[in-house]
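Here is the promised in-class demo. Please do not try to memorize the tokens; focus on the logic of going from shape to residues.
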């Protein structure tokens, strides 16, 4: 199966093969793997001088919860900038943790507005931290990280960046303007298997955060302390996942780093979009705010079924029978579905997917012949 989803994703054979061994969690060999993992994660966002990587067992949300729990003190206040479900989730986690939290919402199709954020921060001195989702996987929208980071720095607050679906592909530099914490997981643009979440955190800030977490397992400060003290994880580590993630990070290097990976995703996205447009589908977002990570399409108003109605579940099943797993939409306001562009997938996978969809539409000819030259776009 080719997974065209927001994760878990299609992985390389070498990544899966890296798991075919057992490791003792306290053994030096495994401690070296963990150190390798932590070093590479910090390097990706250029934090060697200022930041440390703290992996934690679990899915991405575990890192969000651990970071908010550990970095926010009882008297701190978080402002969440939200234009999708992951912004909402960040706010709801902070709320459940009993932290002060304010949420500023924008429509799902609009970027966060940095100037508006500045006004809010100037007005409310109680806000100590700002939460931003880099690529809102709900729609595939890219938020203006540089502008928001600049403003948060200017007014001397801390930026917590959920970079779950951008880390490893879209460039993030924690140095200037500084980002206090960047969060992601093993199974998105890093193209590893699921099981590890992590945060790359400002070391100075983290060292001042020992008293905050009321959770035992989601205490990022203690987790970090143990890595520094013994090189070990506090509780049973997902040893095979660590090995697979290190191999996935080596594969990222072999590919040419985040820039080369982004270029491949960009090509995937562009083939997909051109082909889907030629078949009459419409992208939900304005292309100017779209990241080449996951595409949201509006459900077509007509479909060659008995009653002319498009049903996602039937479409999903038909595409799955031909080897591709796509994803439902997550918007309540519009009928949509999503197709991911990330993972170990490339041009030929998208050309094949477009042939499959064209077949479903009853087109006599797949769209790839027409989209290959890129001059037949705009079928909508
Ligand atoms: C995937 C994702 C998460 C975390 O989701 P999990 O299911 O816990 O891995 C958080 N934020 C964003 C933007 C994501 O894409």
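The designed amino acids, position by position:
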């Amino acid at each position: 199966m080719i997974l065209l989803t927001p994760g878990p994703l299609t992985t390389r054979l070498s990544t899966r093969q890296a798991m075919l061994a057992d490791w003792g969690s306290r053994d030096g060999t495994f401690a070296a793997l963990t150190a390798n993992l932590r070093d590479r994660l910090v390097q990706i966002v250029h934090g060697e001088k200022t930041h440390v990587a703290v992996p934690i067992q679990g899915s991405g949300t575990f890192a969000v919860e651990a970071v908010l729990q550990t970095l926010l003190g009882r008297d701190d206040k978080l402002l969440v900038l939200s234009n999708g479900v992951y912004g909402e989730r960040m706010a709801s986690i902070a709320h459940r943790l009993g932290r002060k939290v304010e949420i500023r919402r924008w429509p799902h199709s609009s970027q966060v507005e940095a100037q508006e954020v500045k006004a809010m921060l100037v007005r409310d001195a109680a806000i100590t931290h700002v939460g931003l989702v880099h690529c809102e996987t709900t729609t595939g929208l890219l938020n203006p990280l540089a502008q928001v980071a600049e403003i948060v720095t200017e007014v001397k607050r801390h930026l917590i960046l959920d970079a779950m679906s951008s880390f490893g592909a879209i460039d993030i530099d924690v140095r200037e303007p500084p980002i206090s914490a960047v969060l992601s997981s093993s199974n998105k643009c890093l193209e590893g298997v699921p099981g590890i979440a992590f945060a790359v955190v400002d070391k100075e800030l983290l060292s001042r955060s020992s008293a905050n977490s009321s959770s035992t397992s989601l205490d990022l400060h203690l987790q970090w302390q143990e890595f520094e003290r013994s090189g070990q994880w506090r509780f049973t580590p997902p040893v095979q996942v660590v090995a697979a993630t290190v191999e996935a990070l080596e594969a990222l290097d072999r590919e040419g780093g985040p820039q080369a990976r982004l270029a491949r995703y960009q090509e995937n996205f562009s083939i997909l979009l051109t082909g889907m447009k030629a078949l009459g589908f419409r992208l939900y977002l304005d292309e100017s705010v779209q990241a080449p990570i996951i595409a949201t399409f509006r459900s077509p108003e007509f479909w060659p079924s008995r009653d002319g109605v498009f049903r996602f579940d039937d479409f999903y099943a038909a595409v799955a029978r031909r080897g591709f797993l796509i994803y439902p939409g997550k918007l309540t306001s519009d009928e949509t579905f999503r197709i991911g562009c990330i993972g170990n997938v490339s041009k030929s996978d998208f050309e094949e997917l477009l042939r499959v969809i064209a077949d479903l539409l009853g087109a006599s000819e797949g769209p790839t012949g027409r989209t290959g030259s890129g001059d037949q776009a705009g079928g909508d």
